[in-house]
């Protein structure tokens, strides 16, 4: 069995798609996943499975849709993938609170997007967008929705602290 990190898009955001993590944990255990751990309320999960990443994502997506009627995109990643993404961050030199990762559900061939983001900056590498939000994520134009529109791919964003915590949970 291997450990997998699951990222849900749009759970418990602005009062929409409410899904308590205790219920989500139970749902995932009912699907046969082991050592299920959740982190904060925005759909961050670590679990153990023998299934492929695609199968895990599909099963979770279908089960949430059946039980809650939410059409929630589900991204499954190997722990090593997230570790490499964190290590490759071109903004390691900036304060942690400015660093965000927009995980793309599919690799993109687009590596540049026109935007006047003031002093904020971003780098697109395959299936992740590294964001340096100097004034904080709440003030940047470099949002999850912005990248979904420009890159034509579903995405979900996590801050640096949450991404590191998921690695910590996966390795505990």
From TrEMBL:
Superkingdom in the source lineage: Bacteria
Pfam families found in the cross-reference section: DUF1697
Signal peptide feature range: none
InterPro entries: DUF1697
Record-annotated membrane-spanning stretches: none
PANTHER family the record matches: BLL4334 PROTEIN (PTHR36439), DUF1697 DOMAIN-CONTAINING PROTEIN (PTHR36439:SF1)
Name of the protein: DUF1697 domain-containing protein
Source organism phylogeny: Bacteria, Pseudomonadati, Bacteroidota, Flavobacteriia, Flavobacteriales
